[in-house]
Amino acid sequence: MSPKIERRVRLACILALVALALMVWSQLQPTPIPVIVAMSIGQGIGTISLILYLVAIAGDLKQARVLSDEREKPKA
Amino acid sequence: MTFSTPGILNLVALTCAAGATGILVWYLLARPALKTHAKLWLFLGLGPLPIGAALAGNGANFEETKERRFCASCHVMTPYAEDAASADSRTLASLHSKSPWFGHESCYVCHADYGMFGTVTTKLGGMRHVWDFYTNDWTTGERKPELYKPYSNATCNECHPRDKPGAPMEHQVHKAAIASDEVNCYSSGCHGPVHPSQMESEPALAEAKP
């Protein structure tokens, strides 16, 4: 696992925690601003965090050649 | 928190959020190697659990935004909310807010657009009010919250059918005008005033009985 991929995963976790905090805020204080912030910014950040994680994992799988096209060709 | 539908959705949202937070904090603090086991846990903490929290939270929020107390939480709505809650007020808003059936969400019931996407179009209209509030200066008191389209009698007719037997003479005489919204149910001399603001603009209504 390269440090770049680990950094991405950690960033995804931090972004998800921010998104979750905004969503929880709207549940504990359901007034207009928290609700609007949770349903727009909160869910936007949450989506970005999931995409970032999936990109990181796809990069890791590619690095491990699980998703690579390079296969051992049979000898003629 | 109560065990109504929004209460249950609220609980589901908070439980999902707590689960996801636990997984994410564990990963950030314990820093385990990113092997299959950790990846699956992280997927749970970044995918299904936050998505579950968002879906349940949206459901709870949509229900909460129908409540009169939610509308009243914007300070520009304070005079409307105080009037609706007043035991002595004779406005239509106050009378409807006393209904044990829908009094707790009377703002939404009277101002919602009906139809399949009624809730969504109503909430979009509400968002436009919020946008206008923050982009225009409503704090001076010169500009009051207002509807973006004329209030339709069709909303009143959802609960009060026009063609019921024994309809009063006025309804029979003005049938076409009422149907075309030329005359509103809340008009001067009919069933108004609907809100205190209407009494300010039409003082004669303050004396009228709804």
Question: Quick recap of the structure?
Answer:
The complex is a heterodimer of chains A (76) and B (210). Chain A is an all-alpha fold and 76 residues long.
Please give the radius of gyration of chain B in angstroms: 23 Å
- What share of the residues of chain B does DSSP label as strand, in percent? under 5%
Distance between the termini of chain B: 36 Å
Mean pLDDT of chain A: 87
N-to-C SSE string of chain A, H for helix and E for strand: HH
Outline the structure in words:
- The complex is a heterodimer of chains A (76) and B (210).
- Chain A has 76 residues and is mainly α.
- Chain A has two helices and no strands.
- The model of chain A has no long low-confidence stretch (mean pLDDT 87).
- Chain B is built from 13 helices and no strands.
- The model of chain B has no long low-confidence stretch (mean pLDDT 85).
- Chain B has helices at 5-30, 36-46, 48-64, 68-72, 78-85, 92-97, 106-111, 118-135, 153-157, 169-173, 175-179, 196-201, 204-207.
- Classes of the chains: A mainly alpha (76), B mainly alpha (210).
Descriptive keywords:
heterodimer; A: 76 residues; mainly alpha; 2 helices; 76% helix; 0% strand; elongated; B: 210 residues; 13 helices; 58% helix
Question: How does the SSE layout of this entry go?
Answer:
The complex is a heterodimer of chains A (76) and B (210).
Chain A: H1 3-28, H2 32-63
Chain B: H1 5-30, H2 36-46, H3 48-64, H4 68-72, H5 78-85, H6 92-97, H7 106-111, H8 118-135, H9 153-157, H10 169-173, H11 175-179, H12 196-201, H13 204-207
